[in-house]
Amino acid sequence: MTPSKSAGIKILMCEPVPERPEVPAHRAWWQKTAERVARPGVTLDFKGLKKGYFGITTYEQAYNGVEMAQRAFEAEKKGYDAFIIGCASDMGLKECRALTGIPVVAPTEASCLVASTLGDKFSVIDLQGFTRPVIEGAIRNAGLSSKLASIRYPDGLTAGKAFQMTYGGKQDQLIEMLTSEMAKAVKEDGAEALFVSCIVTSALLNMKEVREVAGVPVIDILAASIKMAEAMVDLKRAYGISVCRKSLYLSPSSGWDKQLPITFD
Fold this sequence. Notes:
The protein is an alpha/beta fold. It is built from ten helices and nine strands. Helices cover about 45% and strands about 15% of the residues. The strands form two sheets. Strands 6-5-7-9-8 form a five-stranded mixed beta sheet. A four-stranded parallel beta sheet has the order 2-1-3-4, with helices on both faces. It starts with 8 loop residues before the first strand and ends in a 6-residue tail after the last helix.
């Protein structure tokens, strides 16, 4: 019997940094997004990494990507139906998919796929220039480089400054900086869809109901990820569709989990 689409779906989303003693305020925004876009029966839980770095340099991202894959493995073992990487860098995406049998969704990949259906080309608003190659790589891996109009970032903005503005009473100023850059992407680069390459900042725009700029749709990358996760779970349940294991998502060698066992919380 084919499972009903109304059957419950459990999704785990993991932040790209270690779990903190206090619950981050932005998780309330994420929960509101889930309540608004997820269909009935879908639950979204949040966790951080078991260990790792709080920075976003190349080495730190590589290390945390392995930890992300281990969280995905744990999620499957604990009965989750899908896993969302909680970072716009899509860190550890290949490793997560290679290690698990459940759908793994990455925000930038999901948002690019949605954006490509909404217009001819899309633009990404990044928070700092040095992460541009990471975002370009995620878009290239999704096979959508030809749909990219531009990657822009507001002068003087960094991820750290954006977080300070988000939690320091300067949200409206931050939104003005981002939407101003979006307007330039529309006018100067021909963008016909837009999104911000930070899952926290994107949630802020969503909470402030920034849905379009200059007549062009603005995609919330978490909302896109949740709907992608639902669709992939539906396809897996109905037809058994999963990732191909021939090359990119080849499963680990036999006995890998005995060599370096993964411990659960």
